[in-house]
């Protein structure tokens, strides 16, 4: 009987062990198949707006608190370049230092990262000491781009997330010719991302493998969505940029979200990747972390990240960000709050009269600046493209004085003043190229800035705009006459679609920053 009882007890124990083992195995299977959450926080087109750095930093902290150990901060390009004076006067060193404090380690290369040339990008901006992997799969990797990659992988919570970058296909239209000579685009942005995403999803561990692929494409969200090739199903999430737009409802053909998060640090996109399985067999879905695709800095909006308990949120890195901003601002005030000239108007480019006056003023300064150099001593006409002007008004605070900071903020792009010689036909073509027809067929002007010593009339009665009765300093210009013109390096190498300048001869960079030409001109004409 005793033996029988012992056997019964042993059977019960073994049954219990088997039950527990089955439960453990079931739990292990469940845990293995449960999606792993990876959070991506993205900014684009920050352009050195360090006045927004604290706000961006706070949103990144909230995203980290929301998913501890599972968040990656990334940029879609133009982190630097075209920046306000506080950052630009130090060649965006404050912005690069702030990005490191943010924990931002991945970025697509935008066009403005190349403002000071390829060597400056590769040796300074993309220096490994800054801690950022810069990505552009459609750019040929020469020795000049030794610090540029097609992609990078982050292993987070055991999942491999690949970030594949690409820069706009229209790079030649937004870079100076002198810079573009050192850049070759071998593929379109979309084709290059597909190529890398396919390789990372082919099941071959020898050539790299990822569990999820995030595309960082520095180009407009609509252009990416409507691309003739189209991003394929191996791309799980797309961030776009370049046009400073807010677009959150675009998708690839396979349903991957395409998100463009504005500019200047006013928005942060925060998304979750829910990843099950691995490699070629991985299943990935995307959701917005805080309800909407973007967090914005509008005070009228409720904080979409309020799911994070404020009492648990720490701001350990905020002091470091604040310190960098305060130091940069103090240096900018010391050097920038120096009055250049008094003015009788704001030169407000949002008003027709103000825009015309501003464009003429800067074109006059370009002409004057060129004449002060050996290369441009014979210049007769000055030009400026309105697209190169960044702020709303030259006298931004309306106090009747223009400061060094206000000039540099208006002319923040890193262009020099240059000269080129055109004949009469080419000069007319350049002026005419500011006119185009809108969708209703009406003529519209691009408001090209031309120095005040030039007069002409437009004939818009035909299919193409024609410049008639062109005069410089009151003298008629004939077709064969040679005229040396001045303008910034971007415009005179065909930028903003003004391709007539490319037909000229004797192009020369005066090596004088085009913002300095305005400072010198204003001082001389105060």
UniProtKB/TrEMBL annotation:
Q: Does the keyword Hydrolase apply?
A: yes
User: What molecular function terms (GO) are annotated for this protein?
Assistant: 5'-nucleotidase activity; calcium ion binding; nucleotide binding; UDP-sugar diphosphatase activity
* GO annotation, biological process: nucleotide catabolic process
Q: What is this protein called?
A: 5'-nucleotidase
- Hydrolase among keywords: yes
To which species is this protein native?
A: Bifidobacterium margollesii
Q: InterPro entries of this UniProt entry?
A: 5'-Nucleotdase_C, 5'-Nucleotdase_C_sf, 5_nucleotidase/apyrase, Calcineurin-like_PHP, EF_Hand_1_Ca_BS, EF_hand_dom, Metallo-depent_PP-like
What keyword terms does UniProt attach to this protein?
Answer: Hydrolase, Nucleotide-binding, Signal
- Give the family this protein belongs to, as stated in its UniProt record: Belongs to the 5'-nucleotidase family.
Instruction: List each copy of the EF-hand domain by range.
Output: 392-417
Q: Which GO terms describe its cellular component?
A: outer membrane-bounded periplasmic space
Signal sequence interval, chain numbering: 1-30
């Amino acid at each position: 009987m005793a033996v029988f009882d012992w056997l019964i007890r042993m059977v019960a124990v073994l049954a219990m062990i088997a039950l527990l083992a089955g439960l453990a195995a079931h739990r292990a299977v469940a845990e293995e198949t449960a999606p792993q959450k990876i959070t991506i926080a993205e900014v684009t087109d920050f352009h050195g707006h360090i006045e927004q750095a604290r706000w961006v930093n706070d949103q990144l902290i909230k995203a980290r608190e929301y998913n501890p150990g599972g968040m990656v901060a990334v940029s879609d390009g133009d982190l630097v370049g075209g920046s306000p004076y506080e950052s630009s006067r130090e060649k965006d060193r404050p912005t690069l230092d702030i990005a490191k404090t943010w924990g931002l380690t991945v970025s697509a290369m935008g066009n403005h990262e190349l403002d000071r040339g390829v060597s400056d990008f590769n040796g300074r901006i993309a220096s490994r000491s800054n801690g950022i992997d810069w990505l552009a799969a459609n750019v040929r990797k020469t020795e000049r781009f030794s610090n540029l990659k097609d992609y990078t992988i982050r292993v987070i919570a055991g999942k491999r997330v690949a970030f594949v970058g690409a820069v706009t296909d229209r790079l030649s239209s937004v870079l100076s010719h002198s810079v573009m000579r050192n850049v070759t685009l071998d593929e379109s942005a979309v084709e290059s991302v597909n190529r890398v995403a396919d390789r990372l999803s082919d099941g071959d561990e020898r050539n790299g493998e990822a569990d999820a692929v995030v595309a960082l494409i520095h180009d407009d969200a609509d252009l990416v969505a409507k691309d003739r090739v189209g991003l394929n199903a191996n791309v799980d999430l797309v961030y776009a940029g370049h046009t400073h737009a807010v677009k959150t409802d675009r998708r690839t053909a396979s349903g991957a979200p395409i998100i463009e998060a504005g500019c200047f640090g006013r928005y942060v996109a925060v998304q979750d990747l829910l990843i099950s399985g691995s490699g070629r067999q991985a299943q990935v879905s995307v959701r917005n972390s805080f309800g909407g695709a973007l967090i914005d800095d509008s005070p009228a909006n409720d904080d979409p990240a309020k799911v994070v308990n404020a009492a648990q949120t720490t701001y350990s890195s905020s002091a470091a960000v604040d310190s960098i901003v305060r130091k940069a601002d103090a240096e900018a005030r010391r050097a920038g709050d120096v009055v250049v000239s008094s003015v009788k108007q704001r030169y407000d480019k949002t008003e027709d009269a103000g825009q015309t006056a501003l464009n003429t003023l800067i074109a006059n300064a370009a002409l004057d600046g060129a004449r002060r150099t050996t290369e441009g001593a014979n210049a007769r006409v000055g030009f400026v493209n309105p697209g190169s002007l960044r702020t709303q008004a030259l006298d931004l605070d309306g106090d009747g004085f223009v400061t060094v900071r206000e000039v540099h903020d208006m002319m923040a792009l890193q262009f020099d003043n240059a000269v080129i010689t055109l004949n009469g036909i080419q000069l007319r073509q350049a002026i005419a190229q500011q006119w185009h027809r809108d969708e209703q067929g009406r003529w519209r002007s691009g408001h090209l800035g031309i120095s005040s010593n030039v007069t002409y009339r437009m004939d818009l009665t035909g299919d193409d705009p024609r410049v008639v009765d062109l005069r410089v300093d009151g003298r008629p210009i004939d077709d064969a006459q040679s005229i040396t013109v001045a303008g910034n390096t971007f415009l005179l190498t065909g930028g903003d679609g003004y391709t007539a300048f490319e037909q000229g001869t004797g192009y020369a960079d005066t090596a004088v920053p085009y913002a300095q030409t305005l400072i010198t001109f204003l001082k001389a004409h105060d």
